[in-house]
Amino acid sequence: METTFWLGLEPLHQLTHSAGYTRMRVEMYANDTNWYSAEYDHVSIDNETAGYRLSTFGYSGDSGDSLWANNGQTFSTYDYGQQSSLAMMMQGGWWYSGYDHACLNGGYEFTIMSQATGFYWNCSACWSLPPPMSSFVTVKPGHLLVSRIMVTRP
Question: Which CATH architecture has domain 9-152?
């Protein structure tokens, strides 16, 4: 059973600025039957006035620091933000830079292009078009099946 839950930008801002939740762990399961993880010592989401800008640093893990291009970016959706056309193409809001290696909030079943999706991590082929299905987790290429994101206190 697949479930998706989006907490929302304002609650993420509140958690990362007021409540002390400044660490983040992203876990991914790929069809090569392995789990991969990325941990960040610091994550914060700015307020609405600042465009819910993403800030991350202190990467460790075995999946690659795929948020490096998204660091410092504002959040975009199909109808709002500096990368609204990219958000429309990827079928989901994200901190798009245009040179993204990660998007965990795009469409899982991508309908615009065959053999592609807007849901990926550590993709080296994602700089203008959605990645091919074989490029999701380049540590060991495989289809990204599940992801979990946990924001915690240090």
Answer: Alpha-Beta Complex (3.90)
